[in-house]
Amino acid sequence: MDRFRMFFQHFQSSSESVMNGICLLLAAVTVKLYSSFDFNCPCLARYNALYGLGLLLTPPLALFLCGLLLNRQSVVMVEEWRRPVGRRKKDLGIIRYMCSSVLQRAMAAPLVWILLALLDGKCFVCAFSNSVDPEKFLDFANMTPSQVQLFLAKVPCKEDELVRDSPARKAVSRYLRCLSQASGWSITLLLIVVAFLARCLRPCFDQTVFLRRRYWSNYVDLEQKLFDETCCEHARDFAHRCVLHFFASMQGELRARGLRRDPLEGSLETPEPLGPPEDQDYGSRKAHLRAVCSREQVDHLLSTWYSSKPPLDLAASPGLGRTGLSHRAHMVTPGTRLSQHTDV
């Protein structure tokens, strides 16, 4: 269990590696899904295009949405875009950088599906078999327009009796497969060229802007993670304090009514003075909860965090969070002993 916890913490600390791994996993799942998928074109003039284009575009859309859902930065990006300005201004460059990072990872699996479908050619043949110009093929000269449309609709179904041994079907199917594979290889080459140019031309631009956006993008993600962890820690401590306060009050009420007896002597216990909850919590070193005594204060704390996050200025931060959530200790002078919990 400890090894699993260390493994999970490692992947939590390196979110970029996790996202790259998720992208590769989605791409591998895409290849497996497409290879195991049984493609059956309806071979009807009204439904061929709908079915072919649906299988060409609908699974990539679903994979794209899955990529957005699995990427933590997509939620962080939307929260950063929608949050009030408060004491911290918003940088649209950071949001654009996060958006480009999210889209690049989310587009990996859909592009794999589209390229596989185009290189295979079945979806393309099914979708565009009725759009072929009959004048390009000599075998359609003796057919009426209705017969031509019926024949073209049956092209994807090579086992159909109408087109089973027809050389025209093979010619149309070969023509559409060539177009599909040419489109697939063209898109692949275009993506490689774009990636190559982006890689080569990046040093030509201002690297300081790129580094700043990358740094603050990672900061926003890590800040949200630390806030969630600190909220869990704070909620656990606050619940512990409420439970202890409840049982302490119940003990005092039982003693005041004389209902609690000593199990050894069978006599009533003498009431013992109960100190305030702050003194009881002092022994457990929950100092960060001293100023938080009610649900309204916790709600106010959380709404303050959402409406006006603290400014990114460490020199001005002391004194702002006397009632804030605690996760890290203050910077102190050498020789000063640090407590377990301090305010941020």
UniProtKB/TrEMBL annotation:
GO BP term, pick one: ATP export
Entry keywords, A to Z: Ion channel, Ion transport, Membrane, Transmembrane, Transmembrane helix, Transport
GO MF: monoatomic cation channel activity
Membrane spanning stretches: 21-37, 49-71, 92-119
Entry keyword Metal-binding: no
Principal localisation: membrane
Stated name of the protein: Calcium homeostasis modulator protein 3
InterPro entries referenced in this protein's UniProt entry, alphabetically: CALHM
Family (UniProt): Belongs to the CALHM family.
Cellular component terms per the entry's GO annotation: plasma membrane
Name of one Pfam family that matches: Ca_hom_mod
Region annotation (Disordered) ranges: 325-344
Gene from which this protein is expressed: Calhm3
Membrane-topology descriptor: Multi-pass membrane protein
Subcellular location: Membrane
Record has Transmembrane helix as a keyword: yes
